[in-house]
Amino acid sequence: MSAVAQSIETRTEEQELTDGFHLVIDALKLNGVTTIYGVPGIPITDLGRMAQAAGIRVISFRHEQNAGNAAAIAGFLTRKPGICLTVSAPGFLNGLTALANATTNCFPMILISGSSEREIVDLQQGDYEEMDQLAVARPLCKAAFRVLHAADIGIGVARAIRAAVSGRPGGVYLDLPAKLFGQVMNADAGAKSLVKVIDPAPAQIPAPAAVRRALDLLKGARRPLIILGKGAAYAQADEAIRTLVEKSGVPFLPMSMAKGLLPDTHPQCAGAARSTVLKDADVVMLIGARLNWLLSHGKGKTWGDAPKKFIQIDIEPREMDSNVEIAAPLVGDIGSCVAALVDGLGSNWPAPPAEWTAAVGAKREENVAKMAPRLMKNTAPMDFHGALGALRTVIRERPDAILVNEGANTLDLARGVIDMYQPRKRLDVGTWGVMGIGMGYAVAAAIETGKPVLAVEGDSAFGFSGMEVETICRYNLPVCIVIFNNNGIYRGTDVNPAGGDVATTVFVKNARYDRMMEAFGGVGVNVTTPDELKRAVDAALSSGKPTLINAVIDPAAGTESGRIGNLNPQSVVKKK
């Protein structure tokens, strides 16, 4: 070997090297990522191991969709992108539902998936789990990127983070082919290639003219209403929103995941008079809420015949006029917009007409009084209202507990029955109404906040993610799951008119879900009355032990599709 060759070899041996595995981990740590949710496997198994060794908490799930849901709600709770790590092709596809759901709900999340090699995928030569994952993901998320070279990992991670949290938050896909992890480069050069994202979600200040227009419209209202959406909860502008509501004196209606921004027991809360305020209001201010199907698109009989003018606060200009005319669009981030409105109220803002606020208050009290006897029933088997009445008391006594909620009747009725007292304590199915979020949300809520979690599940909804009870037990999380078990979807009394198999909506009768939890070392409890349910939940939340309570509900309780049965088409053709 020549002297020159020997010199080059010596210098190479002396260089400190790094690779794609370490660069991905270093890029995430540089940007404050402390937790990864995912499922290990080819080609990302070692990435998870090495991330764990580097001090990142890696939570392994039993299914990628549940890991993705955990990452999504972590993003909602922290305003930082939750990270979900999956294997290629089938694992990527499992996580894709959660990614699309995060985008629809405006939760910042990054789905990172290993993938097959480009040269084989592009020629469709049949690689292991071959799929053009970037092309599949792109239409279903806010942004999608692929990194092919180790030197670009820092930029790729930075772009994903900025895309996830800037403007209207959403889901981002980051594609990392298997060969990338093994690529080697000089460690110093690798360190210099990393990017720390600066101010990823800068404030977007509303135009002064838009603020004046909104305030003029609100001041002239005879029957004003403020609607708070989950975007308002995500913004964490809690004090500014409270000041706006209380200083203006306007009744407010919280959407389900905005409950607790101000307590549901607040004298201006119109949650128990929802139908009345939507029908009769003349000026409606939307804060982080969209006029989608959850608000009947801002029109139709839900909104009554009274003429309406809308003020809408949203960071996305294209949201304005999406269903009805927006008389006063206010484009900007919620914190900045609400602060500007508060400044504009001044010291002598006129209170809304007493006739309106008194009418809303009277309707609220009337509806609360009507509901009270149903919530106090202590029968066996339970109905939904009796069981929810017990849980309502639990949350009132433990307002810092996080409530996760999904199902049909279980979800719809809980929204109206269980009062919330603190912001971001109610997590549910959101915009799509998709079932299966329960266990993923429960895991992430416990990990990200350290608070006890109460997951109230319909028996059908629980089935989508039920195996994650093992995950809850494995990490010894303070999660209490209550399953409203009425033996079926909607109810357990349907009959197959043709005989033979059970009806399509009926499950195994008298199933004991509590024994699933016992199988993994958790606590299982079977209850048949609201009093038993209250005692069991209190014990679980006090102990902090993983607990599953099988709450026996009357099989005949429940209605078709909960409160959205009108969306379920009915056949008008009669077969002979």
What topology does this entry show?
Elements: H1 3-14, E1 17-19, H2 20-30, E2 35-38, H3 45-53, E3 57-60, H4 64-78, E4 82-86, H5 90-105, E5 109-115, H6 118-122, H7 133-137, E6 143-146, H8 153-165, E7 171-177, H9 178-182, E8 184-186, H10 187-193, H11 208-219, E9 224-228, H12 230-235, H13 238-248, E10 252-254, H14 274-280, E11 283-287, E12 309-314, E13 328-331, H15 334-345, H16 354-375, H17 384-397, E14 402-406, H18 409-417, E15 426-428, H19 438-449, E16 453-458, H20 459-463, H21 469-474, E17 479-485, H22 514-519, E18 523-527, H23 530-543, E19 547-552
Helix pairs in contact: 2-3, 2-8, 4-5, 4-19, 11-15, 13-15, 17-18, 17-23
Give a structural overview.
With 576 residues, this protein is of the alpha/beta class. 50% of the residues are buried. A six-stranded parallel β-sheet has the order 3-2-4-5-7-6, sandwiched between helices. Strands 15-14-16-17-19-18 form a six-stranded parallel β-sheet, sandwiched between helices. The protein has a five-stranded parallel β-sheet with strand order 10-9-11-12-13, sandwiched between helices. The chain contains 23 helices and 19 strands. The chain folds into three domains: 18-193, 3-Layer(aba) Sandwich (Rossmann fold); 208-362, Rossmann fold (3-Layer(aba) Sandwich), CATH 3.40.50.1220; 376-563, Rossmann fold.
